[in-house]
Design goal:
Strand order of the largest sheet: 9-10-8-7-6-5-4-1-11
Strand content: 15-25%
CATH topology of one domain: TIM Barrel
Shape: globular
Structural class: alpha/beta
Low-confidence stretches: 385-414
Helix content: 25-40%
CATH architecture of one domain: Alpha-Beta Barrel
Largest sheet: 9 strands, mixed
CATH superfamily of one domain: Aldolase class I
């Protein structure tokens, strides 16, 4: 008998446009050319959600994430229309967490108050750095003062539950510079900070023309120094790149990391749904290019059923990002598999000092968090099968990237900070 259970449900909405594409960005975003036809795109988003809504019947949506791209290019009126439409199509929890990603340079004075009135109750602000030189390297359109002004606007609007995206390992950045960036971020009173290392992703400008980034050991020293600063400021690290004040963890992202379900609407958006009646887990993905997405009437995502052999990897891809780990019961409930399905690759991870496991559950060690990408390799179906037969170990770990999203292809489409 399967142990598969229906998990919590979230909604991700993708806005694919930016004022300018950053040279490090490998997410599904496009430079905005001309007038933004926001009304047409919102109509398409609602048609998309309407077509997918029957798959979740009366299930309650616990969180909504408006990600991109730059959702704050859309006016508060457009966001209000979208959220009103969402409430008419799915059962949105009265206390749902509703997050808007925002670029500090695209926020007009008073706009956050209007976004709050539209239904937004959490904001993720793309600070990235408080060094003007670093922001120039990163191709950002905002200044450090823009971020400070935006944070002040958030407080004034009563949107005190906000996240700051902050990067380290930046071009020519020193240890002192990384710590100074964090101190500047904490001084703005955020509830949450997403702190991740700059990585040179394939297909980006930085991959073709690499900037002078710190060596791996220098970046590791930055991370350790910043972790101490977070702890001293009362922030808990609850995910490999996420820190929050007590009670203010991002509920939306926690749903991803515990292998929850989510509807994905918008160009390039990904989704995951558990079909308990069919004993199935299904991945959905929309076409990436906005014009092709807009041509669908309504848009129809491509479906992929996650096989039993893939579920262990898919679960570990997210759950091993959590320093506190996960229980064997959660693994069984979210995958429908027995705990024994994970024991062979977990044994390899334990033998290499990357994880601590028992019959009750598993958690990554500090070394495992540092070399997360390499630990995940042992859970790939083909590697996992060999591990169980021959005790195969993956190569020695090398420096891992502290990515802001899982390694699942296109995972930025699920809206992680």
């Amino acid at each position: 008998m399967s142990t598969l259970r229906t998990p919590p449900l979230s909604l991700y909405v993708h806005f694919p446009w930016c004022v300018r594409k950053c040279p490090y960005c490998d997410f599904n975003s496009y430079t905005l050319n001309g007038v933004l036809a926001e009304s047409d795109y919102v109509s398409q988003l609602l048609a998309d959600l309407s077509a997918q809504a029957p798959h979740v019947a009366a299930r309650v949506v616990r969180s909504v994430f408006l990600g991109g791209g730059t959702p704050s290019l859309f006016t508060p009126a457009a966001v209000q229309r979208l959220l009103e439409g969402v409430r008419g199509l799915v059962a949105l929890a009265p206390d749902a967490e509703i997050t808007l990603e925002a670029n500090p340079a695209t926020i007009e004075r008073g706009a956050f108050r209007e976004y709050r009135a539209a239904g937004v109750n959490r904001v993720s602000l793309g600070a990235q750095s408080f060094s003007a030189e670093a922001l120039t390297w990163l191709g950002r359109i905002h200044s450090p003062d823009d971020t400070r002004r935006a944070a002040a606007e958030l407080h004034a609007a009563g949107l005190t539950n906000f996240n700051l995206d902050l990067m380290y390992g930046l071009p020519r950045q020193s240890l002192a510079g990384a710590v100074a960036d964090l101190d500047s971020a904490l001084a703005l009173g955020p509830a949450h900070v997403s702190h991740y290392q700059l990585t040179l992703e394939p297909g980006t400008v930085f991959a073709a023309l690499p900037p002078p980034v710190p060596a791996d050991d220098e970046a590791a020293a930055m991370l350790e120094a910043c972790r101490e600063r977070f702890a001293a400021a009362g922030f808990e690290q609850y995910e490999v790149s996420a820190y929050a004040r007590s009670g203010l963890r991002c509920r939306h992202n926690l749903n991803y990391w515990t292998f929850g379900d989510y509807l994905g609407v918008g160009a390039g958006a990904h989704g995951k749904l558990t079909m308990r009646a069919r004993e199935a887990i299904v991945r959905t993905v929309h076409t990436r290019e906005p014009r092709r997405y807009a041509a669908g009437r309504p848009p129809r995502p491509t479906l992929h059923e996650v096989t039993a052999s893939e579920r262990t990897f898919e679960f570990m891809l997210n759950a091993l990002r959590l320093p506190q780990g996960f229980s064997a019961g959660l693994f069984r409930a979210r995958t429908g598999l027995p705990w024994s399905a994970a024991t062979a690759p977990l044994r390899v991870a334990v033998e290499r000092g990357l994880a601590l496991c028992s019959d009750a559950g598993c958690a990554p060690t500090p070394l495992g968090l540092r070399f997360l990408n390499e630990m995940l390799l042992v859970f790939l179906p083909e590697v996992s099968e060999k591990s169980g037969k021959s005790g195969l170990s993956t190569p020695a770990p090398r420096a891992a990237s502290q990515r802001r999203e899982p390694l699942y292809t296109g995972a930025r489409g699920v809206g992680q900070e």
